[in-house]
Specification:
This protein has 299 residues and is an alpha+beta fold. It folds into 2 domains: 178 residues, Homing endonucleases (Endonuclease I-creI); 75 residues, no CATH class. The chain is 57% helix and 13% strand. The protein contains 11 helices and 8 strands. The strands form 2 sheets. A 4-stranded antiparallel beta sheet has the order 1-2-4-3, with helices on one face. Strands 5-6-8-7 form a 4-stranded antiparallel beta sheet. Strand 1 and strand 2 form a beta hairpin. The radius of gyration is 33 Å and the shape is rod-shaped. The two termini are 59 Å apart.
Length: 299
């Protein structure tokens, strides 16, 4: 199962008062696959999620459902409501909200803080996709209704000081959260407390892995630079020796040491000099050797 499903499973056990059930159902309906004054279709990959909202719909006075299961490999559980009486009962239950295009968020159902949280929960249950934190942490919502997507974006900011991102992908409005803090805040608001603790632990693990990877990459790059430099040193020294070009004693000493100890660091080479010199001193002498080789026509 997906990480989205794991979080949604945690939300199924939440019980809510009458006003919050209305708000949650409203969020679920607005972000369902098909929503209009003549038809509502709810699709979900999980039968237990459909069952939760069927209970809410029956409480709203909806009596006639068309239930189906579609798909061979990936199952989709459908609930279709199209009878005019049921649609009327549903709208009246929700306070005479409109499902006509363009879809908009009716604030009359969301006056209480608990109802605003329940609304977010319903939107997430219907439409939220949560990428596993082991890959790259994010929550995404998308809708073909541009006005609705824009209002949901503003709702998240104004009601809860959340900071989502927004874009358009394949003609659909996409609202997303990608920072660890915003994702944890969102998950806490919709009531999945266990998921918040899990995300906090995964954030720590992710931070450790990222730090270790950066250090490893940095060390690897430093090693590669040292190897490249040592190769350039040896090439210059071998060229000068092949041309019988004499070197001052300090340069000759470091040149012989570099050929004798090709894998040594500059610090180690400097300590082998007589008298010992610093890393900077060894680097300076080898730089002069490379410059001399270039001056004499070496690569």
């Amino acid at each position: 199962m997906s990480y989205s499903y794991d979080v949604k499973q945690k939300l199924l056990s939440i019980s809510a008062g009458s006003c919050c059930r209305k708000a949650e159902l409203y969020g679920f309906l607005l972000f369902s696959n098909t929503v209009s004054d003549s038809e509502i279709r709810l699709f979900t990959a999980y039968p237990e999620i459909r069952a939760r909202y069927l209970n809410f719909l029956m409480e709203a006075g909806v009596k006639k459902f068309e239930l189906a299961c579609q798909g061979k490999t990936v199952k989709k559980y459908l609930c279709r409501i199209s009878h005019p009486r049921d649609l009327r009962n549903l709208r009246e239950f929700l306070g005479s909200v409109s499902f006509a295009s363009p879809l908009r968020i009716d604030p009359s159902l969301l006056e209480k803080d608990c109802c605003r949280r329940a609304f977010l929960r319903g939107v997430f249950m219907a439409n939220g996709v949560m990428v596993s934190p082991e890959k790259t942490c994010s929550i995404e919502f998308k809708t073909a209704h541009q006005t609705l997507g824009g209002e949901f974006f503003e709702f998240c900011k104004d009601a809860f000081d959340l900071l989502p991102g927004s874009t358009v992908r394949n003609g659909k409005k996409l609202i997303y959260f990608k920072s660890w803090d915003s994702i944890k805040d969102f998950v806490a608001l919709i009531g999945a407390k266990d998921a918040v603790y899990d995300l906090a632990n995964r954030e720590i693990e992710h931070s450790f892995r990222s730090t270790a990877n950066r250090r490893f990459n940095c060390d690897t790059a430093n090693i590669q630079r040292s190897v490249d430099a040592a190769t350039d040193h040896r090439r210059a020294i071998e060229f000068l020796f092949s041309k019988n070009i004499s070197l001052p004693d300090p340069l000759l000493e470091i040149a012989r040491l570099r050929l004798q100890y090709p894998e040594d660091t500059l610090s180690a080479l400097g300590q082998k000099c007589d008298p010992p010199i610093s890393k900077a001193g060894a680097a300076h002498r080898l730089k002069k050797i490379c410059a001399l080789a270039e001056e004499k026509g070496g690569a």
